[in-house]
């Protein structure tokens, strides 16, 4: 599967992406009867950021560490259909309420998502730097550091987009 992505797209996904590919196969096999919107959410989760529990910052991020690092938002909400995760970054202001209050915009969004689902998704709250964030990180699908060595030996998604932009600019000249 990894080689197929490399041949088609010219870059390699991380091991988490291989997990994603396996999850896609499992989800479609188990939930083939889902509506397209629900199946899409199960295969490719939604990542939203919040400046505070009451203020939406950005409605859709890519599922990458680069998106997390470049975002100045301290709170992220990940909707993976069967799992909902509220992730407070390690740089979040300690005065932000944790977990978010029941009457805030973030909780209203969570409750709306739960109400719209045919199943009851599992809700998790994670504090970066204090709690184990591996569950949240398992949904991030591409990285520069593909093999864990600390060196970029393959192209990640952000680099891929930058290379495409450069190629288009050169082509337009």
UniProtKB/TrEMBL annotation:
Signal peptide: 1-21
Top-rank taxon: Eukaryota
Keyword terms of this UniProt record: Signal
The name this protein goes by in its record: Protein transport protein SEC23
Source species of the chain: Mikania micrantha
């Amino acid at each position: 599967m990894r080689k197929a992505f490399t041949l088609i797209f010219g870059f390699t996904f991380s091991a988490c992406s291989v997990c994603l590919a396996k999850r896609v196969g499992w989800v479609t096999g188990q939930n083939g009867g889902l509506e397209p919107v629900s199946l899409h959410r199960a295969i490719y989760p939604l990542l939203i950021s919040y400046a505070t529990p009451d203020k939406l910052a950005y409605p859709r991020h890519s599922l990458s560490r680069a998106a997390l690092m470049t975002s100045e938002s301290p709170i992220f909400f990940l909707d993976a259909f069967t799992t909902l995760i509220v992730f407070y970054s390690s740089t979040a202001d300690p005065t932000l309420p944790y977990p978010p209050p029941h009457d805030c915009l973030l909780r209203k969004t969570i409750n709306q998502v739960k109400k719209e689902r045919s199943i009851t998704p599992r809700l998790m709250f994670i504090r970066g730097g204090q709690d184990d964030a591996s569950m949240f990180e398992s949904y991030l699908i591409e990285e520069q550091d593909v093999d864990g060595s600390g060196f970029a030996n393959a192209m990640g998604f952000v680099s891929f987009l930058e290379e495409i932009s450069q190629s288009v600019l050169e082509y337009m000249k």
